[in-house]
Specification:
The complex is a heterodimer of chains A (about 525) and B (about 350).
Chain A (H helix, E strand, L loop, with lengths): L5 E10 L2 E11 L4 E6 L5 H8 L7 E6 L2 E3 L4 H6 L2 E4 L11 H6 L5 E2 L2 E2 L1 H14 L15 H14 L4 E5 L7 H16 L3 E6 L2 H7 L2 E6 L2 E6 L6 H9 L17 E11 L5 E11 L2 E6 L6 H8 L5 E8 L2 E2 L5 H7 L1 E4 L3 H5 L6 H5 L10 E2 L2 E2 L1 H14 L16 H14 L4 E5 L7 H16 L3 E6 L2 H7 L2 E6 L2 E7 L5 H8 L5 H10 L7
Parallel strand pairs in A: 3-10, 3-11, 6-9, 9-10, 15-22, 15-23, 18-21, 21-22
Antiparallel strand pairs in A: 1-2, 1-4, 4-5, 7-8, 11-12, 13-14, 13-16, 16-17, 19-20, 23-24
Helix pairs in contact in A: 14-15
Chain B lengths: L1 H36 L4 H13 L2 H26 L7 H15 L8 H30 L3 H21 L23 H5 L9 H18 L1 H11 L1 H6 L4 H28 L10 H11 L4 H25 L5 H14 L1 H18 L1
The chains are: A alpha/beta (about 525), B mainly alpha (about 350).
């Protein structure tokens, strides 16, 4: 008979031109994990920002413990026991775990921070909830998963009873995801309630007690994972049937498009990040690089696309040596690049759609003649591609920053694939996208392969690697440690080699042999 | 089909104009309070300021005269900003431009006037560009920050000119200055051309406006401008798109330097007719404020430079007629810069209007 811990009634939030939340109601009980599922832009984060006091709603009411409350600032939300862990962590990197956790609520003796008590408090909470962290470590030295635990501890330290996690798994490795869900389960058995904002269906199925699905600012359904399956959830979320495993025709391997021999590349700290990689990609083939983030993938891509100097080895593309080509020469030769970080390398966010669409081709006709741009030709081709790639925007004169993540990614894809390259290097092409957009991106990549182009896919998502690749190269510490043909390896096997399971011996051996794995 | 796009454009143009406009209004509002608080009549002060700046042809000419170097230096700083470069050393590049004009002016005396002027403009631009080249190279190759290096080059440039006008290039007589250029080598005055007394205003003002339009066009419609803006916004994305970041930095800072060099040329062959130690009253630095107010838009630079020109031209009349000290103008200038820099204040003032607009939409 106890009233729900948190209740939202008819929350409405309007932004100029958009109804972000349309009369949304939601109940959250003690001891349960509710997944708030929806596509990018469905209004999940807006709703939770209302709960956390970051946005004030245009209509509706919020109840905590059955009492109506007005949330005007995060401070008030925190005082009511609401904690939120944002997608992008709000931690101060040079400070320690303890300092970050107590920040804003420091225990003091006569105005001086009692850091010893703070540390003891942190250790106490971390033990109670099973969130292992080193209280004295600096944030900057911690892996992402541990940083996230610090964020959760910070909320708990402030007395959170309701914990909102905004896309918590976006940055985690599969192992860290598993740990996180263990922690969340532990928290609810301790009497907390957790809201999990996500667009990943597996997570909802694996971790939640109840699912609330949002679409276009409205709650379109509520269910329990036990009463549905992934395709049922996807249908609710997207509003139509979604294909998960893409039907793939067998590869017809043509001529060699890319030939990489014993490639060595340094990272920004001048340490060897790519330690002698050798592989080929043929026309009509998707080769996936699978690996845990930070095992040389970024440097490999940058070397292939002319953005980073090659120390040793050769890259040849369609028979031409491009080892030391500039980014522009590489683009002109026919290599397209969907960068792993669309905000950093993919787009100039301040540029409008048309200006972004020609980046890389901006010196070439029909866009430019003798250094002078042709706005009409640019607008025409942009309109065509925006239509073909389903980039949703009211106008091509809107800054790319105003598009949702999925549409930004489609914009990058429209440019890179629309250029009609011979090789597409796609790094994390579906990072942060919802199922609808993922399906679209995957089908486009597959279409490239079917039209006889070579594709190098670099991804941290095993699901993506498994469903797209014709060949999988597993990388670990800058080397290719294992090669699988499509469908040959289970996720567990891939995970085993990705985490160095092939043995460190192998690494030592190959040092003297110049890099190539002797395991194959 | 076209309509929504046009209205989006129009709206963004209006939005761009609104903030600087409100900033200027706020500056005058606070300025009024200051004038009133120290016992003068703000209304009288502003009317006499207006009169002093635009009251008749001669006064209008004075405004144009004072705006002219600021158009060039403001444009120089604005162009640099668009490429993500803070060319704080426009003053030094201006001195080099002036130096080249003062020296060349003696050599082109036998050429037709237009050709001579064109040669001096091009050479002055090159001199300014050359003065920006070394900081640009340092920035592109080793990442040395241009704020430091262009500033250092300003000192070098100024003292180089100081040395030359007191030594090798000094004209006969007591005063350290170069030889006066022949009137035939100078940019014609408006008074000469139109037969109306525009004071010392000269065609350099029109050249400045033309160069602003040219730079606006370059930024918008050429690959040079496109690449500069791309690097200015996000050099990583630019690099990924095949733009050479270091080449763009060098090119953009040199263009910025060239524009500042032009300011020096028009001051020498438009106004002074010679070079001396103090021939610039910090035009290069005021250019930063002009660029800021113009929000780095080359067309906005024209308006911003005229505003600054009008303020300094009208200050004398304001003192004479309203008894308000000229120095009040510095307060106004400072307030304008303050409100432009703290543009959130202007946006906050504008926010009720914006909300109404959104509801109407």
């Amino acid at each position: 008979m106890a009233s729900p811990l948190l209740e939202l009634r008819n929350i409405t939030k309007r932004f100029p031109g958009v109804l972000a939340n349309d009369s949304v109601s939601l109940k959250l009980n003690k001891g349960e994990i509710v997944a708030l599922l929806g596509e990018n832009g469905a209004g999940k984060s807006t709703l939770m920002n209302v709960v956390y006091g970051l946005l004030s709603p245009d209509g509706g009411e919020v109840f905590v413990d059955g009492e109506p409350v007005e949330l005007k600032s995060p401070r008030q939300a925190i005082d009511l026991g609401i904690g939120m862990v944002h997608q992008h962590f709000m931690l101060i990197e040079p400070l320690t775990v303890t300092e970050n956790i107590v920040l804003g609520n420091e225990p003091t003796t006569a105005g001086v921070i009692d850091i010893r008590k703070a540390r003891a408090d942190v250790v106490e909470i971390s033990e109670r909830y099973g969130l292992a962290v080193d209280p004295d470590a600096k944030i900057i030295d911690l892996p992402v998963g541990a940083q996230q635990r610090v964020e959760i501890l910070k909320a708990l330290y402030r007395g959170a009873r309701i914990l909102i996690l905004d896309e918590p798994t976006a940055v985690l490795t599969p192992q860290e995801v598993k740990e996180l869900f263990g922690v969340v389960r532990q928290l609810v058995t301790e009497g907390l309630a957790v809201v999990l904002i996500t667009h990943k269906l597996e997570e909802v199925m694996a971790s939640s007690d109840r699912v609330v699905v949002m679409r276009d600012g409205k709650v379109v359904g509520e269910t329990k994972p036990s009463d549905t399956d992934m395709s049922g959830l996807a249908r609710m979320m997207v509003g139509r049937e979604v294909v998960f495993r893409i039907e793939k025709k067998p590869t017809v391997c043509g001529d060699t498009v890319l030939n990489v021999r014993n490639l060595k590349v340094l990272d920004d700290r001048h340490l060897e990040a790519v330690k002698g990689m050798t592989f080929d990609i043929c026309a009509g083939e998707i080769v996936a690089i699978a690996g845990v983030s930070g095992n040389g993938q970024t440097q490999l891509i940058e070397a292939l696309t002319g953005l980073r100097k090659v120390e040793e080895g050769t890259i040849s593309f369609l028979g031409n040596d491009i080892t030391h080509s500039s980014a522009r020469q590489t683009i002109d030769a026919g290599v397209s690049h969907v960068p792993e970080d669309r905000h950093r390398r993919g787009l100039v966010l301040e540029f409008d759609l048309a200006e972004n669409m020609i980046l890389g081709d901006h010196r070439k006709p029909p866009f430019t003649k003798r250094g002078i741009m042709d706005p009409q030709a640019i607008a025409q081709i942009t309109e065509e591609r925006v239509e073909e790639y389903d980039v949703r925007s009211p106008s091509i004169r809107i800054a790319a920053a105003n598009l949702s993540g999925g549409n930004q990614q489609k914009l990058v894809l429209a440019r890179e694939v629309g250029r009609n390259p011979e090789l597409l290097v796609a790094a994390q092409p579906t990072r942060g996208l919802d199922v609808g957009a993922i399906e679209f991106v995957h089908s486009r990549i597959l279409a490239e392969r079917d039209s006889g182009k070579g594709v190098l896919l670099v991804s941290l998502e095993l699901e993506e690697v498994q469903s797209l690749a014709d060949r999988i190269l597993v990388v670990f510490e800058g080397r290719i440690v294992k090669e699988f043909a499509a469908g040959q390896a289970s996720d567990e096997e891939l995970g085993y080699f990705m985490t160095g399971g092939g043995g460190t011996k192998l690494t030592e051996n190959s040092d003297t042999e110049g890099g190539e794995s002797n395991d194959a | 089909m076209r309509n929504p796009i046009t209205s989006v454009r129009l709206k963004s143009v209006l939005e761009q104009l609104a903030t600087p406009f409100v900033s200027v209004l706020l500056a005058f509002a606070i300025g009024s309070i200051v004038i009133w608080a120290v016992g003068y009549d703000p209304i009288l002060a502003w009317t006499s300021l207006l009169k002093g700046a635009f009251g008749d042809a001669r006064r209008l000419g004075d405004t144009m005269l004072r705006a002219t170097p600021l158009i060039f230096t403001g444009l120089a700083v604005a162009y640099g900003f668009r490429a993500g470069l803070f060319n704080i050393g426009a003053e030094g590049q201006l001195f080099l431009g002036g130096l080249s004009a003062a020296w060349l002016g003696l050599l082109v005396v036998d050429l037709p006037r237009g050709i001579g002027i064109a040669i001096m403009l091009v050479a002055g631009a090159l001199a300014g560009a050359a003065w920006a080249f070394i900081p640009a190279l340092l920035k592109a190759r080793v990442g040395a920050h241009e704020v430091i290096t262009t500033m250092m080059f300003t000192f070098i440039g100024r003292y180089l000119v100081s040395y030359l006008v007191t030594g090798p290039l000094k004209a006969e007589g007591q005063i350290p200055q170069t030889v006066k250029l022949a009137p035939e080598t100078m940019i014609p005055k408006f008074s000469e051309t139109f037969g109306i007394d525009f004071g010392r205003a000269h065609w350099g003002f029109v050249i400045g406006i033309a160069v602003c339009v040219l730079m606006w066009w370059i930024l918008k419609y050429t690959t040079t401008g496109y690449e500069a803006r791309a690097v200015g916004f996000n050099q990583w994305a630019a690099e990924t798109g095949g733009v050479s970041v270091s080449r763009t930095i060098i090119k953009s800072l040199c263009i910025s330097g060239a524009l500042a060099g032009l300011a020096g040329v028009v001051e020498v062959i438009g106004v002074q007719g010679r070079l001396f130690d103090q021939f610039s009253s910090g035009f290069g630095f005021t250019g930063i404020a002009v660029a800021l107010l113009a929000r780095n838009n080359p067309l906005g630079v024209i308006a911003a430079a005229i505003l600054f020109g009008a303020l300094s031209a009208g200050a004398g009349t304001m003192q004479l007629e309203a008894d308000v000290p000229q120095k009040v103008i510095f307060i106004i200038q400072a307030l304008v810069i303050f409100f432009v820099a703290a543009d959130q204040i202007a946006k906050w003032v504008l926010s009720p209007f914006k909300r109404k607009g959104a509801e109407n939409a």
